[in-house]
Amino acid sequence: MDLVVTNNGTDNIALFAGYGNGTFASPTMYSTGSSSSISIAIGDLNRDNR
């Protein structure tokens, strides 16, 4: 399981990749440009049913 967090004040999204043992990697940050994010829509992007 992975965790995605929106950071409204800093205009970015953080992805915490899960190791599968209940712990997460350090976040990978993605810029939302000059727009502030307030929500995230997610899905099984690689279709692995996990």
TrEMBL record:
Residue ranges the record marks as coiled coil: none
One Pfam short name: FG-GAP_3
Matching InterPro entries: FG-GAP, Integrin_alpha_N
Keyword annotations from UniProtKB, A to Z: Signal
Alphabetized Gene3D superfamilies for the sequence: 2.30.30.100
Signal is among the record's keywords: yes
Protein name (database record): VCBS repeat-containing protein
Organism of provenance: Rotaria sordida
Taxonomy of the source species: Eukaryota, Metazoa, Spiralia, Gnathifera, Rotifera
